[in-house]
Write a structure and sequence with these properties.
The protein contains four helices and five strands, in the order H-E-E-E-H-E-E-H-H. With about 130 residues, the protein is of the alpha+beta class. It has a five-stranded antiparallel beta sheet, with no helix packed on it. Strand 2 and strand 3 form a beta hairpin. The model has no long low-confidence stretch (mean pLDDT about 80).
Amino acid sequence: MDKIAAKAEAEGFLKSLLNKNLRVFTTDGRLFVGTFKCTDTHSNIVLSLTYEYRQPSQQKLAELAEAMAASAESGKGTVAADMPSRYLGLVVIPGPHIVKMEVEEFASQAKSRSIFERRDLYGGTAR
C-alpha cells in the first residue's frame, strides 16, 4: 500500500470515529470517557461531554483488601472498588499520554451494521 492510500485509509478511519463515544486510558492511570471531536498532527485528541475516572488511592485499596479478607473468612460475597469520577466537559488529551483508546459501542449497535457497511465507513467500497 503506498503512502497516499495509507493516509486516505487512516483519514477515513478517524472520520468514522467522529462523534462516537471513546474510552481513553492515560499513562497516569486515568480514564476519560467522552465524545470524540477532533485530533491533530501531534496525536492530541479533543473529547466533549467528558467524564474523568481515577484509580482508587493505595490506602483505599489496602482498606478494601482487608475488607475482602474479612468477608472471605465470613463467607460473604465480593468487595468492589469504585473509581471516583468528575465531569470535565471539553478536554484536550495530549497524544504522548494516551495509552489506549476504545470505541464505546453496545452489542446491539455492532450487530445492526453489516460487514459491508463497516468497510464503507473505513474507506472501502460498499456493495
